[in-house]
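About this split. The held-out portion is used to measure sequence recovery: a designer receives only the structure tokens and must propose an amino acid at every position. Recovery is the fraction of positions where the proposal matches the reference. Here is one held-out target exactly as it appears in the evaluation file.
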């Protein structure tokens, strides 16, 4: 657990912050600029006044366990009711949202909880949250928590409201899903609003296979909900997240029409979030972690002699693993929407090879070794290609959302190393370089290369818990029951998310590479979820000009797969709820019962993301 920058206090109590005898009973976090008061019982409670205002605020009152302090550094007009509404959550009253109205005397919360900010000596900005979100958002999401309607949902818990709840990490049900013949999602912004951009977060943004990303769609706007104007039309999309800037327009209603819901034959549309912004999307902030690092042979027994890593880049396992430490300046570029961008650069090895992206968190000044524990971001598979395939010699994978890891990557108190673990198999007797007469070892010994970047548009919210507990990372499991050790946690608010990646491998006849399975997830012995590793590879055939086309076809019938060449392996997220006072132990049950063929494994990664 790390200390957030600001304060939220829980407890049913009324107090004057200037009266030490009536201080709040429990402080969850404190500010480095705080002042300390002390209750009659002697427990310290800390009140943050804001670093730009030496004067104490006016008398505050609160009920039902909610209390916010507003720093006085910005203009009151900036603290819009919309921004307050979208930001408010309380660990004392979890999972509730509250509506606010801005008045001349402060902010009034209208809900079952009667909270009044009765007096305000100066401007009201910077609502303090349990995760430390402060300041006024530069681009408001006008659709957040607004009334949403849509075509018939796949399930009762996958209705339109899930696409405007501000979350993509609540598991596979944290989305709007519809299999209706005409698929659409509509949001009422409440009044005519100025619109500059739309953001659509498709299936891959929530951890589902990218083959479920919406392929063709359009966005329409309306003043009255009846007459519609098309603002955006998209064809042949494959990205997890799409951003669409528009010339400034005014509308009350927005509508997302999903004309081709997936990359293949699956008929269900999956939208994890539909955002409407009042300002244009910010430019990308890119941290280029690794740039075309070579992937040497996985079977070689000596270190490469034809390649020297750039300064600061560590090379392990005879040129198949690389890692680099993020600088403070690079950490400052990481935002709440950080994503991982992986690029494949073909060379000699035309076959599909397994790899993973990972990070290591260490105390300042401590360098990792090849055996230092790590957490896996995502697994991925190289396509069938080579350096003679023109434009198809390069494959930029869809950005993999890493927002649950944003605080960990930007942690100012730790050294963060980010890397790739992969490898290739060149010089096996019939690879592309040998067929083209290439003998220069600097080329011939390299199967392909990878680049890795962290990409953000947003800023980073202050105060989030950066701790990630890695229980398994790319672990080659050989049994159908996979169990982690029991661990403790330090989650600030006693809540956390489970991240799971698993897929079967084994190329021999009957190997787990040629199947898929259902996987059950248990938390402390109780089942909390099941999911299928089934995937349709049809949309990935285009990235493998050297591949056997049969691999990418009939995956829903006679040719099952749990991963695809040229694709990411989904990382799935599950809400663990209240974990206060619990140790954490997890089990995965693989539906394909062991024993499997001798070369078959289920590469498995399991992490707990604290909040």
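Reference sequence for scoring:
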């Amino acid at each position: 657990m790390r200390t957030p920058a600001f304060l939220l206090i829980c407890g049913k109590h009324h107090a004057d912050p200037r009266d030490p005898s009536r201080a709040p009973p429990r402080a969850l976090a404190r500010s480095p600029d705080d002042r300390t008061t002390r209750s009659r019982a002697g427990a310290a409670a800390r009140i943050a006044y804001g670093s730009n205002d030496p004067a104490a605020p006016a008398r505050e009152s609160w009920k039902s366990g909610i209390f916010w302090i507003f720093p006085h550094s910005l203009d009151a007009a900036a603290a819009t009711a919309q921004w307050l509404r979208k930001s408010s959550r309380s660990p004392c009253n979890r999972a509730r949202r509250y509506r606010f109205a801005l008045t001349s005397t402060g902010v009034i919360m209208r809900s079952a909880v009667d909270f009044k900010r009765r007096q305000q000596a100066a401007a009201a900005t910077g609502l303090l949250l349990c995760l430390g979100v402060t300041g006024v958002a530069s681009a408001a999401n006008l659709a957040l928590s607004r009334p949403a309607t849509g075509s018939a949902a796949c399930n009762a818990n996958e209705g339109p409201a899930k696409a405007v709840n501000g979350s993509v990490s609540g598991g596979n049900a944290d989305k709007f899903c519809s299999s209706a013949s005409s698929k659409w999602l509509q949001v009422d912004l409440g009044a005519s609003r100025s619109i500059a951009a739309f953001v659509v977060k498709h299936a891959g943004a929530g951890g589902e296979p990218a083959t479920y990303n919406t392929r063709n769609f359009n966005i329409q706007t309306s003043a009255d909900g009846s007459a519609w104007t098309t603002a955006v039309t998209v064809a042949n999309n494959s990205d997890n997240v799409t951003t669409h800037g528009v010339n400034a327009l005014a509308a009350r209603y927005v509508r997302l029409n999903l004309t081709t819901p997936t990359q293949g034959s699956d008929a269900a549309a999956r939208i994890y979030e539909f955002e409407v912004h009042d300002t244009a999307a910010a430019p990308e902030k890119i941290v280029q972690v690794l740039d075309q690092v070579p992937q040497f042979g996985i079977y070689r027994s000596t270190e490469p002699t034809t390649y020297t890593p750039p300064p600061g880049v560590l090379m392990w396992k005879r040129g198949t693993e690389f890692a680099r430490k993020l600088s403070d300046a690079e950490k400052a570029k990481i935002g709440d929407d950080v994503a991982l961008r992986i690029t494949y650069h073909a060379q000699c090895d035309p076959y599909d090879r397994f790899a993973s992206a990972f990070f290591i968190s260490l105390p300042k000044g401590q360098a990792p070794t090849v055996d230092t524990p790590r957490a896996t971001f995502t697994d991925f598979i190289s396509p069938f290609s080579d350096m003679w395939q023109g434009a198809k010699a390069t494959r930029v994978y869809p950005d993999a959302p890493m927002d649950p890891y944003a605080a960990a990557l930007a942690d100012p108190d730790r050294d963060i190393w980010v890397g790739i673990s992969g490898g290739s198999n060149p010089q096996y007797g019939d690879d592309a370089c040998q067929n083209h007469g290439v003998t220069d070892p600097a080329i011939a010994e390299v199967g392909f290369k990878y680049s890795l970047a962290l990409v953000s548009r947003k800023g980073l919210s202050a105060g989030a818990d950066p701790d990630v507990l890695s229980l398994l990372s790319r672990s080659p499991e050989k049994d159908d029951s996979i169990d982690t050790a029991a661990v403790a946690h330090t989650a600030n608010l006693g809540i956390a998310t489970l991240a799971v990646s698993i897929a079967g491998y084994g190329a021999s006849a009957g190997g787990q590479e040629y199947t898929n399975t259902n996987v059950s997830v248990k938390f402390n012995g109780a089942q909390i979820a099941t999911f299928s590793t089934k995937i349709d590879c049809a949309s990935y055939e285009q990235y493998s000009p050297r591949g056997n086309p049969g691999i990418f076809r009939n995956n829903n019938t006679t040719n099952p797969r749990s991963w695809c060449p040229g694709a990411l392996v989904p990382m799935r997220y599950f809400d663990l709820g209240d974990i206060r006072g619990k140790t954490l132990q997890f089990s995965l049950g693989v539906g394909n019962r062991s024993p499997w063929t001798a070369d078959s494994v289920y590469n498995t990664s399991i992490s707990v993301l604290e909040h």
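Annotator remark: Confidence is low (pLDDT under 50) at residues 1-137.
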